[in-house]
Structure formats: C-alpha cells, structure tokens
Design brief:
With about 240 residues, the protein is of the alpha/beta class. It has helices at about 50-60, 80-90, 105-115, 125-135, 150-160, 180-195, 205-210, 235-245, and strands spanning about 5-20, 25-35, 40-45, 65-70, 75, 90-95, 165-170, 200-205, 215-220, 225-230. The protein contains 8 helices and 10 strands. The N and C termini lie far apart (about 40 Å). The mean pLDDT is about 90.
C-alpha cells in the first residue's frame, strides 16, 4: 500500500485483541485512519473505547493483532524490536499525563535525554528555540521536584520536540494540571503545529482540550464512529453525550 506523502500516520484495517478464546477482548476493531502532516488531531471516546490502544499502536508502542501501520513513511509491520525502538526514538515524541521525567536530572538534561540515548548532540540553536517557546530558559538547572506541574509538562513537551519528530503523541497531557495551566499547555501544542509544522495526536476526555485540535476522531467499542472538523467545546461535548448515552 502506498502512503499519501502528506500523511504522517496511516492505520489500515487495524485491530488489536487482548487474550484469546472466551477471554478475548477487542480493543480496536478494523480501524482505518490517515493523519496529515502538520495537523493536530484529538482522539476521544468513552472509557474503554480504545483511545490509548489506538495511540500506542500508532506510535509503535504496541503491535496490532491485524492490519498495518505506517509511521513517518515506514511500515511498522516489518520492523524488529531494535529497529522499532530506534524509529520511536528518532521520529516520535511522547507527552504523557504523568510527565515521565527523570527526577535526578535537571530540566536541561531531561529535555536532551532522547538525543543522548540516540548518540546525537542537540542543535544548539534549535534547543534554544524550543526552550524559549516553552518558557523554560530560566529553569533549565532545576530538577523536576523543584518545578510546578505545568513547568514539568513544559519540560516534557520540549523533550518531545527537541528531536524534530515526525509526530508527537500526547496521552491526556493536561490530565494532572489545573484548568489554566492545562490551557497553556494546549496552546503550546497548538503553537508547535502552527509555527513548527509539527504533527500532534492527542488522546483526551476534555471537550475544551479537544477544541484546540484541527479535528476530533471519536471512538466507541474500538471502532472509529465519527470525525468532527473545526471542533468547538460545545459540539464536542454534544457528540460525546450521544456516544456515552
């Protein structure tokens, strides 16, 4: 299958089943989805609808039971674990609800950790630009325990951007933050799309968070059931009410 060059991610007939026999649980059911480069997509759905499984499969953290996934032009099916790990390190950025920072490292060292793991040196001008965009220039020597939750998530976003990834996957990135700080983080993700032409895929349960995206993909029972372009909080909330009803 050829991949549209404007697409950063393509899932084709992807299913993911856990367990077998009578205990089998279908987390994803025949999902086909293309996400354009330079776009911000929110993934929503009721609890247990397959949101995180979709993100994990698309990012190469989990392998589908069937179907195919292309990420940054690479077919994930044919990759061994070492090659898959290298692809994630070099082409994917991750932002999680729990920040996932190394407590003993400074903010600067947390940001550049993916590069060091890849044996690469940061481009100084790019690193300065990223740090400035997330407003951390005066916090680089601080360790995570000396930073607020919002500042820790800014470190995580900078870490995700510093490798110039093809896609940033964000799993409930504002879930541990207060409303005002959460909106600042969402604005940063939005800016990374608009100013840096980054591609962002974000799982969220929050209609306001989803409204920062270009489009929302809705899941229910492991399947894509709707897509909403140019989302507003009210339209997203209304659609979620129907899904959960």
């Amino acid at each position: 299958m050829t991949m549209d060059r404007t697409e950063a991610v393509r899932l084709s007939h992807v299913s993911r089943q856990y367990g077998s026999g009578d205990n089998a649980v279908a987390a994803l059911r025949d999902v086909s989805l293309g996400l354009e480069r330079g776009s911000f997509t929110a993934v929503m759905g009721p609890s247990g609808s397959g949101k995180s499984t979709l993100l994990h499969c698309a990012a190469g953290l989990d392998r589908p039971t069937s179907g195919s996934i292309r990420l940054a032009g690479v077919d994930l099916d044919g990759l061994g674990e070492a090659a898959l790990s290298r692809l994630r390190r070099e082409r994917v950025g991750f932002v999680f609800q729990s920040f996932n920072l190394v407590p003993s490292l400074s903010a600067a060292d947390n940001i550049t950790l993916p590069l060091r793991l890849a044996g690469a040196r940061p481009e100084r001008a790019w690193l300065r630009d990223v740090v400035a965009r997330v407003a951390l220039s005066d916090r680089l020597r601080h360790k995570p325990g000396e930073l607020s939750g919002g500042q820790q998530q800014r470190v995580a976003i900078a870490r995700a951007l510093v490798t110039r990834p093809h896609v940033v996957f964000a799993d409930e990135p504002t879930g541990a933050l207060d409303t005002r700080t959460g909106r600042e983080i969402l604005a940063l993700l939005r800016e990374s799309v608009d100013a840096l032409e980054q591609t962002v895929v974000m799982v969220t349960h929050d209609p306001v968070a989803a409204s920062f995206a270009d489009a929302v993909v809705f899941l229910a029972d492991g399947a894509v059931v709707d897509e909403l372009p140019q989302p507003t909080p009210d339209r997203v909330a209304e659609r979620m009410t129907h899904l959960e009803g």
